[in-house]
């Protein structure tokens, strides 16, 4: 299987090969806007603070298109029908249909907020509306990540211990300038890729709450964002995703990603004899490409006793899993981080084993404590007013999906959790959402000199 090494980071002298992150570490919505001005600009409409969207004749709006025939996604047969892949702030947005759908609803959310802000403040120009909208979007993403996603990964107890949960009220004042927020090499090249193991082989599409589900092989939805042109597909995709349980986080993966990944993508269609790629092998090889130390090193780094023999792994790995590991690796020191960490039995009340919990929580601690623009900060100029912060804390993925899907009208309030007694379908109108009136400028009039010129002073409402 072809494997392309990550580019080496430029260094001034001879030393170990390092990699350079192409994206920002912070959770700042740069996936939508890009990390550089030359990416952001072409995505902006430069009017009303809005982002560009593709407006369809039936009134729906989609992500703007990328007409580049060599972007690894566009296909001739789709181009004939005027369908192109999409352009966003992150080059990977077309990679799978769920990801593209999330990009779409968040872009719609941007334009929805921009519209509301401009109605509240007709004197704001494009730049102010854009920047303020972007600030709110970044804050909503941080809030949803730490309020809805992380508790599922790390468990409520650890969230509390590490002070990762968003506050219910007031400002969070633990920003620490000595905390390095960079993405750790182990996080990108191994730990956070744990999620490849929880992806199901079949993707569910649900036309309605009680409709019979339709299933599509996962690999058919990779680099196939064209589905979103079809009326109803966005809602079917979202409903299907919300109604699908994840697979266990373990060393077993669907064949869709082990044998068929990108089987239908453009490059492969040009050379139809090539088979699909194996994501698990790529992950393991990526760890080696980046020079990650082995699994036992990370266990020790996390404060656990370092295993020195295979037998030492018996207490935290299932017997069959350990059997496979013994068959593959000659020495316990050789076990790759990805293999070893995914092989650990999950901690109680969590989906991850101890080493993954340690490495992933370390990253999210640093992304919060080391972010001077963290949305709950009280430090100017980043700070939201107490009332604005109170409104942002009402954000939920359910609210974002309800407001930006095509026709979805019922939803489970905790989108990332299964439907159940404590998570029943409710009408979208019952879902709480931020009220933007806290962003209305209080315009006070100041008389300048003695020439009777009124100057309007922008003064965001505080309180
Ligand atoms: C169908 C869904 C997905 C597919 C097809 C997919 C595929 C890929 C591929 C091809 C790579 C690059 C592999 C390499 O050559 O090193 C990658 C990297 C990665 N994936 Fe996924 N992935 C999916 C879902 C996810 C999810 C749900 C997560 C986490 C929540 C995730 C986390 C990552 C991370 C952290 C990287 C490394 C990114 C970087 O270093 O910039 N992936 N994925």
Automatic annotation (TrEMBL):
<dbReference type="InterPro" id="IPR037120">
    <property type="entry name" value="Haem_peroxidase_sf_animal"/>
</dbReference>
<keyword id="KW-0575">Peroxidase</keyword>
<dbReference type="GO" id="GO:0005576">
    <property type="term" value="C:extracellular region"/>
</dbReference>
<keyword id="KW-0964">Secreted</keyword>
<dbReference type="Pfam" id="PF03098">
    <property type="entry name" value="An_peroxidase"/>
</dbReference>
<dbReference type="GO" id="GO:0004601">
    <property type="term" value="F:peroxidase activity"/>
</dbReference>
<dbReference type="GO" id="GO:0046872">
    <property type="term" value="F:metal ion binding"/>
</dbReference>
<protein>
    <submittedName>
        <fullName>Uncharacterized protein</fullName>
    </submittedName>
</protein>
<dbReference type="InterPro" id="IPR010255">
    <property type="entry name" value="Haem_peroxidase_sf"/>
</dbReference>
<keyword id="KW-0349">Heme</keyword>
<dbReference type="InterPro" id="IPR019791">
    <property type="entry name" value="Haem_peroxidase_animal"/>
</dbReference>
<keyword id="KW-0479">Metal-binding</keyword>
<keyword id="KW-0732">Signal</keyword>
<keyword id="KW-0408">Iron</keyword>
<feature type="binding site" description="axial binding residue">
    <location>
        <position position="196"/>
    </location>
    <ligand>
        <name>heme b</name>
    </ligand>
</feature>
<dbReference type="GO" id="GO:0022412">
    <property type="term" value="P:cellular process involved in reproduction in multicellular organism"/>
</dbReference>
<dbReference type="GO" id="GO:0006979">
    <property type="term" value="P:response to oxidative stress"/>
</dbReference>
<dbReference type="GO" id="GO:0020037">
    <property type="term" value="F:heme binding"/>
</dbReference>
<keyword id="KW-0560">Oxidoreductase</keyword>
């Amino acid at each position: 299987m072809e494997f392309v090494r990550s580019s080496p980071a430029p260094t001034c002298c001879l030393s170990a090969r390092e990699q350079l992150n192409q994206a920002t570490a912070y959770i700042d919505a740069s996936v939508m806007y890009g990390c550089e001005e030359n990416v952001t600009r072409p995505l902006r409409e430069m009017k009303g603070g809005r982002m560009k969207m593709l407006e369809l004749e039936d009134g729906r709006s989609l992500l703007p298109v990328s007409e580049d025939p060599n972007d690894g996604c566009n296909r001739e047969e789709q181009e004939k029908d005027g369908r192109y892949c999409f352009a966003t702030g992150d080059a990977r947005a077309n990679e799978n249909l769920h990801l593209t759908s999330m990009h779409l609803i968040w872009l719609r959310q941007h334009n929805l907020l921009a519209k509301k802000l401009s109605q509240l403040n007709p004197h704001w120009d494009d730049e102010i509306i854009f920047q303020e909208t972007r600030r709110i979007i970044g804050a909503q993403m941080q809030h949803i990540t730490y309020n809805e996603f992380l508790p599922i990964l790390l468990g409520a107890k650890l969230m509390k211990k590490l002070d990762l949960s968003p506050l219910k009220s007031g400002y969070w004042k633990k920003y620490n300038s000595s905390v390095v927020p960079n993405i750790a090499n182990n996080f990108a090249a191994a730990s956070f890729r744990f999620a490849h193991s929880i992806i199901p082989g079949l993707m569910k599409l649900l036309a309605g709450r009680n409709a019979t589900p339709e299933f599509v092989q996962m690999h058919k939805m990779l680099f196939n964002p064209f589905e979103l042109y079809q009326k109803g597909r966005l809602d079917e995709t979202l409903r299907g995703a919300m109604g699908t349980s994840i697979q266990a986080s373990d060393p077993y993966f669907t064949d869709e990603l082990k044998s068929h990944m990108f089987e239908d993508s453009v490059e492969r269609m040009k050379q139809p004899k090539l088979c699909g790629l194996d994501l698990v092998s790529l992950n393991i090889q990526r760890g080696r490409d980046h020079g990650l130390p082995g699994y036992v090193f990370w266990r020790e780094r996390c404060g656990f006793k370092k295993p020195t023999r295979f037998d030492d792994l018996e207490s935290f790995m299932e017997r069959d899993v350990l059997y496979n590991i013994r068959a593959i690796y000659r020495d316990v020191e050789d076990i790759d981080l990805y293999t070893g960490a995914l092989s650990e039995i999950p901690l109680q009340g969590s989906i991850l084993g101890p080493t993954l919990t340690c490495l992933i929580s370390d990253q999210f601690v640093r992304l919060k404590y080391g972010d001077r623009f963290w949305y709950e900060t009280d430090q100017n100029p980043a700070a939201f007013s107490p009332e604005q912060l109170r409104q942002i804390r009402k954000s939920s993925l359910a609210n974002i999906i309800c407001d930006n899907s095509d026709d979805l009208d019922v939803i489970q309030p905790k989108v990332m959790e299964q439907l159940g007694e404590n998570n029943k379908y409710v009408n979208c109108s019952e879902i709480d959402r931020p009220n933007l009136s806290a962003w209305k400028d209080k315009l006070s009039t100041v008389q300048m000199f003695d020439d009777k010129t009124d100057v309007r002073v922008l003064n965001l409402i505080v309180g």
